[in-house]
Write a structure and sequence with these properties.
Blueprint (H helix, E strand, L loop, with lengths): L5 E4 L7 H8 L7 E3 L4 H4 L8 E4 L11 H14 L4 E6 L2 H14 L6 H4 L18 H12 L4 E4 L2 H4 L1 H12 L20 H14 L13 H4 L5 H8 L11 H10 L1 H14 L5
Parallel strand pairs: 1-3, 1-4, 2-3, 4-5
């Protein structure tokens, strides 16, 4: 069986997936957009149509270990031979900072240095430095799917949307409509510094726990009425001024540590496209 009519957008998390899923993919001409479909649904798909499936969980849970991500991508390619992969990436410092924001919003209470650390032992950190390798993900996609994946940088959605959409149209083999303007409502905003500190303190004192797959939000009863600490700190207090949850200095240090990995991403995109990065 050959599934050349299937295109999988596999994430990553925190790379403008919400914007793409709400405003771009559903409007794409000549291709049917699917999201969060189960295996049974795939059995019913027509061979004469093209389908774009977008789900960041296809590349693993939000805080998945690298080995688990690679294993999942291999399984996906094996289940649908001949299909194609699309992946979005962002600089490492911003990626880790955004993951930390989600960690707190899903019940985490550890300070950033206990969440992710470039130094020292990794046994007790929430997310290990060795689990952050974009090159490994790209090479696994290329090997498993038998072709180069379509790779883009999140920043391109603001700096070069026309070029990005033109290249994506060529990859999908169908022209898309003009890219919409970036809509802040379709983006997930990170916590600010003092809002994050407040939420971390509440989580710790309330005794809630973080679930590694990031699915179960804390305070479920309050969440029904949007009165849970997460919503208040994120959506209400988040409108007030505040510095970044993870400082620019820390982000820059992470970027520097993974400079070779990010250079690989940039060079990989340039080798397969004419886009200006």
């Amino acid at each position: 069986m050959h599934y050349g009519n299937l295109y999988f957008h596999v994430g990553l998390h925190k790379t403008a997936t919400t914007y793409l899923q709400r405003l771009v993919f559903p409007r794409w001409a000549g291709i049917k957009y699917l999201r969060y479909r189960n295996i049974e649904y795939f059995l019913r798909l027509s061979d004469s149509e093209k389908y774009l499936i977008s789900c960041e969980g296809l590349s693993g849970g939000t805080f998945a270990r690298l080995d688990d991500r690679l294993r999942g991508l291999r399984r996906l390619a094996a289940m649908f031979p001949g299909s194609h992969a699309i992946i979005g990436l962002r600089p490492h410092g911003g990626f880790v900072a955004s993951l930390y924001s989600q960690y707190l919003r899903y019940g985490g209470s550890a300070p950033f240095e206990a969440f992710f650390s470039l130094d020292g032992p990794q046994e007790n950190v929430v997310w290990r430095r060795e689990d952050l390798s974009f090159r490994a993900l790209i090479e696994q996609l290329e090997t498993a799917f038998g072709e180069a994946p379509f790779v883009f940088q999140m920043s391109e959605l603001k700096t070069n949307r026309d070029g990005l959409m033109a290249d994506l149209s060529a990859f999908l083999g169908t022209p898309g409509g003009p890219p919409p303007e970036v809509d802040d409502k379709a983006q997930n905003i990170s916590l600010g510094a003092w809002q994050g500190h407040l939420l971390r303190t509440i989580n710790r004192r309330a005794g809630v726990s973080h679930t590694p797959d990031g699915r179960n939000r804390p305070f479920p009863r309050l969440a029904r009425w949007r009165l849970d600490p997460t919503t208040i700190c994120h959506k209400v207090l988040g409108r007030l001024p505040g510095g970044p949850l993870v400082s620019g200095e820390v982000r820059q240090r992470i970027d520097a540590a993974y400079r070779d990995d990010w250079d690989f991403v940039t060079d990989y995109i340039k080798s397969l496209s004419c886009r200006h990065l």
